[in-house]
Design goal:
The protein has 340 residues and is of the alpha+beta class. The chain has 3 domains: 103 residues, conserved putative lor/sdh protein from methanococcus maripaludis s2 fold; 91 residues, Efflux pump adaptor protein, beta barrel domain (Elongation Factor Tu (Ef-tu), domain 3, Beta Barrel), CATH 2.40.30.170; 126 residues, RNA polymerase II/Efflux pump adaptor protein, barrel-sandwich hybrid domain (OB fold (Dihydrolipoamide Acetyltransferase, E2P)), CATH 2.40.50.100.
Length: 340
């Protein structure tokens, strides 16, 4: 067991004292701080993995005709409905091609009708009629294709959702295949994580998973786990997808590209845990206020990793049955005032 020298002991004790009085300037609070008795509890054992959020339904709209962009009707962050017009392209060349194909179709239809009448009168052969019919089918196909090409001058949203990015500006030249707008459906999100090959079996055995957002201390239960059947040849990792609930309130503030951490539940165990609000931190030092009677004691603790419900495992410094303050700053203020 590692021991501390008197100097080291006094060093961290001084740091904890600073923690205790850091909020002296805060306003006086009449009610005592809330507390909780620490007892062993059943917690979920998890396999953590860093992850990134992505939309389950996302589309990057590209143009299929060439022309200058003459109208832009959306901005990033704007909500759109399926079929809504996003942009318009000056595709006069495609329009003229469609008009030419339509005129050609009229001429070929007339020629077919003449050939058909002549065939009935036995003035032309079956081969001549077959050729006229083939020309008609070809002209109809060319006219339809040209009409579709002209219709692509109006760019519409393929799905309902939010505009994630606009890749072009008014007046720029659009070309076939060039991305114009990226859309995503905010109601469908999933966390994408990479699982090392040696932990793949554990992840595959997991029946549930939770997604943590460390910055906001939010946790969401995954509704479905999907592990792709192949591994990356370079990193030897498998891709896992954890789908989040389709709940607008639960997904509030979450967007594609956000960092997250997936916890695959692989079992349960009995552990001592404390809520994050009970912990005071000063550099590498962690402490809690242990409440015994009317004299709370600031005590250094050694903490482990967060468990699946967001609380933190206590490795040493606390025993079962002890009570800790859930508002250490307020407890520090009360102790400061009691000494006056």
């Amino acid at each position: 067991m590692k021991t501390t020298t008197p100097f080291q002991h006094s060093h961290w004790l001084a740091a904890l004292t600073v923690l205790a009085v850091a909020a002296v300037s805060a306003p006086t609070l009449a009610q005592p701080a809330a507390t909780r008795t620490i007892e062993p509890r059943t917690v979920q054992l998890t396999l953590p993995a860093e992850a990134v959020l992505e939309a389950t339904r996302q589309a990057t709209v590209a143009t299929q005709v060439s022309g200058r962009i003459v109208l832009v009707m959306v901005e990033p962050g704007q909500r759109v409905r399926a079929g809504q017009v996003l942009m318009k392209i000056d595709a006069r060349e495609a329009t003229e091609t469609a008009a030419a194909a339509s005129a050609q179709l009229v001429q070929v239809e007339a020629n077919f009708q003449r050939t058909q009448n002549l065939f009935k009168q036995k003035f032309v052969s079956q081969a001549a009629l077959d050729k006229a019919e083939a020309d008609l089918k070809s002209a109809r196909a060319q006219s339809a294709a040209a009409g579709v090409g002209a219709s692509h001058a109006t760019v519409s949203a393929p799905i309902a959702g939010l505009v994630a990015a606009r890749h072009v500006e008014l007046g720029e030249l659009a070309a076939p295949g060039r991305p114009l707008v990226t859309l995503f459906d905010p109601k469908g999100l999933r966390a994408i994580a990479s699982i090392p090959q040696f932990r793949l079996k554990d992840a595959q055995a997991a029946k549930s998973a939770r997604v943590e957002f460390p910055e906001s201390r939010r946790w969401l239960d995954g509704v479905r786990i999907e592990i792709l059947p192949t591994l990356d040849a370079k990193s030897h990792t498998a891709t896992a997808r954890v789908y989040l609930p389709d709940d607008a309130e639960a997904l509030q503030g979450l967007v594609p590209g956000m960092a997250a951490r997936v916890h695959f539940v692989v079992g349960t165990a009995q552990k001592l845990t404390v809520p994050p609000v009970a912990v005071l931190r000063r550099g590498e030092i962690s402490a809690v206020y242990v409440v015994a009677g009317d004299k709370p004691q600031l005590r250094q603790v050694r903490l482990g990793e967060p468990v699946a419900d967001g609380e933190i495992e206590v490795l040493s410094g606390l025993a079962a049955g002890e009570t800790v303050s859930l508002d250490p700053v307020k407890t520090g203020i009360e102790m400061k005032q009691a000494k006056k």
